[in-house]
Amino acid sequence: MVKPRLKRHGKKQRTYRIVAIDTQSRREGKCIEEVGFYNPRKEQTQLDLSTIAALLRQGAQSTATVRDILKRAKVPEQIGLNL
Q1: Is residue 31 within 8 Å of 19, Cβ to Cβ?
Q2: Which of 77, 75, 25, 21 is nearest to 48 (CA)?
Q3: pLDDT in tens, 6-62
Q4: Lower Cβ count inside 10 Å, N or C end of the chain?
Q5: Is pLDDT of 73 > 90?
Q6: Residue 17 DSSP label
Q7: Cα distance between residue 11 and residue 55, in whole Å
Q8: Distance (Å, rounded) from C-alpha 50 to C-alpha 30?
Q9: Strand partners, 47
Q10: Per-residue buried b or exposed e for 16-50, using 16+ beta carbons within 10 Å of the residue's own CB
Q11: Which residues contact 42 (CB under 8 A, 6 or more apart)?
């Protein structure tokens, strides 16, 4: 099963990439696809809406943290899905 979840990134690992990754892979393992970026210090979020919508329509279950990030960015209303 594929899940959108956070992967640490950066020199001091203070930023995150939102990636589509197999549930049995480790967090820093090889990802299937990168679908966004999240910086909690500056509250910056960059998302690829079409890819995220395709993943969620295919049955991917996002983690709680990614779900909260998507809700703050109002993604469910834009793509017409319930999270």
Answers
A1: yes
A2: 75
A3: 999 988 888 999 999 998 988 788 899 999 999 999 989 999 999 999 998 898 999
A4: N
A5: no
A6: E
A7: 29
A8: 21
A9: 36
A10: bbbbbbeeeeeeeeebeeebbebeeeeeebebeee
A11: none
Look-up of token digits 């779900």: 67
Strand ordering across the sheet containing 15-22: 2-9, 15-22, 33-39, 44-47
State the Cα–Cα distance between residues 14 and 25, nearest whole angstrom.
21
What is the CA angle 53-49-3, rounded to 5? 50
**Dist CA 44 CA 59 (whole Å):** 27
CATH of 2-79, one of 3.30.1320.10, 3.10.20.740, 2.40.10.500, 3.30.70.580: 3.30.1320.10
**Are the C-beta atoms of residues 35 and 18 closer than 8 Å to each other?**
yes
Give the type of residue at 56: L
Model pLDDT, residue 10: 87
